[in-house]
């Protein structure tokens, strides 16, 4: 099967990309609205880009009816947000925050998710998340007027204590069970893992 991108509609391109670029990590993002309400929403067009500076990127598209999502409104106003990684115990709650909540309704409050103040920014983090990164805007890139790429610089990292070996600076993989996004409302576990010896090449 072969397609030229120019022969496909945006929706058809989306279906191809989300069917095969799998699994995708999920940015579970908290922001604070002008009225103080804390918003939480998941984004699966997401990844980290490097460590110096520590950058992440995720895409925020318009809602189907053309409205701008609360996350983007809040980020544009304050320049701050927290990116969390989701594990299995929090997967259902993460999925539920993807619903269409009014701006004056806090998803964490509605779902009973605990919040903890951040160290460097005014946006709180989700207390139970295995990993959280406090961020400030590094750059916003408008794409075709219907989505924005948010590049964030990590200012502080929070790790659930039992998941981190502080001497080796290494995650305890047997205890860390993140979830990935597949497509539609489908997700995957990451418990089935495999190891390979270091690649030798020809040198």
TrEMBL record:
Cofactor: FMN
Protein biosynthesis as UniProt keyword: no
Gene3D superfamilies linked: Electron Transport, Fmn-binding Protein, Chain A
Domain of life: Bacteria
Pfam families: Flavin_Reduct
Keywords assigned: Flavoprotein, FMN
Annotated Flavin reductase like domain residues: 19-167
Family the UniProt entry places it in: Belongs to the flavoredoxin family.
Protein name: Flavin reductase family protein
Species: Bradyrhizobium aeschynomenes
Source lineage: Bacteria, Pseudomonadati, Pseudomonadota, Alphaproteobacteria, Hyphomicrobiales
